[in-house]
Structure formats: C-alpha cells, structure tokens
Design goal:
alpha+beta, Jelly Rolls, 4-stranded antiparallel β-sheet
C-alpha cells in the first residue's frame, strides 16, 4: 500500500458498508475515524473494556478470544484484512465480551460510534448495510456452532484446509495461523489436531512440515471427510 496516498476515505470506500456513500458522507465518517498500528502480539482491547466504536482491519490479522475456566482461551474468530469487528457491542453500548489481539503486525481503523450513529440518521440505507453485516457475522457464528455439534474433528480440520480455493492441489502453502490458534478456532486440543494431521498424512492425503502444508488430492480429502 502506498502510504503517501492512503487516507481513511480510500479504504472506507472499498468496503461494502460504505461504498454507496458520497464523498461528503465518507468525509463525515472519516472525521470520526482514527488509525492504529498494532505490533504482532499487541492487545487492541480486552474483555470488559468500554466499546466506543468498531474496527476495520486494513492489513494484518486479529484474533477475537474469550477466556475459559482453566485460564486458557477459546478463539472465537480470526479477522482478516477488509473485515470489521465490534459493531454489535457498539450498538448495545456494552463493554467487550472478548479480547482482540494482533496475530501479525496490523493496521486498523477505529470508527467512533458517534460517526456511525450520525451516518444512520442521515441515510437509512447505511443502517440496512450495518444490519446486513451483523447478520452475516451471526450466521457465521451459528455455522461454527453447528459444525462443532455435527462434524467430527477431522471434518472440521479438512474444511479449514480447503476453505481457501487459491491453495492448489500439490501446491505447498503456509497455514494462515499457528497450529495452536487453528486448534482453538476449530474447538480442538492441540494434541487432537496433531493426531488428525498425522492421520491425514498417513493416508497419503497431504504432507505437513511445521506450518507448511501440501494437499496431495483435494477430491480424496473431501471424500475422506465424508
């Protein structure tokens, strides 16, 4: 990205939430937007912090995680570039119920809730887009819950590996997250994930070296998942 040409408006205009807005409306949203650089491992917010707006990720990667009883964490979602998070609690005016941490050096925009509410007051279509975005997020979480309840661990792992169509058959690619993060995201223990990956390798479906993965046969992998 050419930082000399970057303004909040240039990124906001690329997002479905804002792409129908006029330049004047984008300027108004941008006036309530701040830029945040977060190093890998940096905390963006913690559970219990006040929610004063929502975030848009320009580049990098962010995990949303909830603490569990034994002191470990459960990763709820992994946010990639171009995606937003925090809208629901902004509307509810409740504190965060999860923490957000950068998994890589990241650049985020934080849009203040006052700017969002003013945009909704100006344009009902903007409110509908906000609702559509929240609905997609809820649908994704419901699908996750369904997969935890109805799919085996092996099926969840295979689904994760096949979700990126750009990873061609026989082509080596790097897992987008560490195996520990992957395990938490798929509601598995690290040990269970390791056993599943070893089993898939033993059946000649893939090879794994660290975070480097090569899928040898996508069709066979799908059939193995049932």
């Amino acid at each position: 990205m050419d930082k000399a040409k970057f303004t909040p408006q240039t990124f906001l205009a690329r997002l479905p939430l804002f792409n129908a807005m006029s330049d004047t409306e984008l300027d108004a949203i941008a006036d309530g937007t701040s830029e945040h650089h977060v190093d890998k491992g940096g905390v963006i917010f913690q559970r219990g912090d006040a929610c004063r707006g929502f975030h848009l990720l320009i580049y990098g990667q962010v995990k949303l995680a909830a603490g569990i009883a034994n002191g470990a964490e459960k990763i709820i979602e992994i946010i990639g570039p171009g995606n937003s998070f925090g809208e629901a609690l902004m509307f509810m005016e409740k504190p965060y119920i999860v923490s957000a941490t950068a998994l890589a050096d990241s650049l985020l925009l934080h849009v203040k809730k006052e700017a969002v509410f003013a945009g909704i007051d100006r344009d009902p279509a903007f409110a509908r887009k906000m609702l559509a975005g929240l609905s997609r997020r809820m649908h994704g979480l419901i699908c996750d819950m369904e997969s935890y309840a109805l799919q085996s661990g092996t099926q969840r792992v295979i689904g994760f590996l096949l979700q990126d169509e750009q990873n061609g058959e026989g082509q080596c690619f790097t897992l987008p997250v560490s195996k520990g993060v992957m395990a938490s995201r798929l509601n598995l223990t690290p040990e269970h994930l390791s056993r599943i990956l070893s089993d898939l390798c033993a059946h000649g479906l893939m090879s794994v070296q660290g975070r480097k993965v090569t899928i040898l046969s996508k069709e066979s992998l799908r059939q193995y998942a049932g």
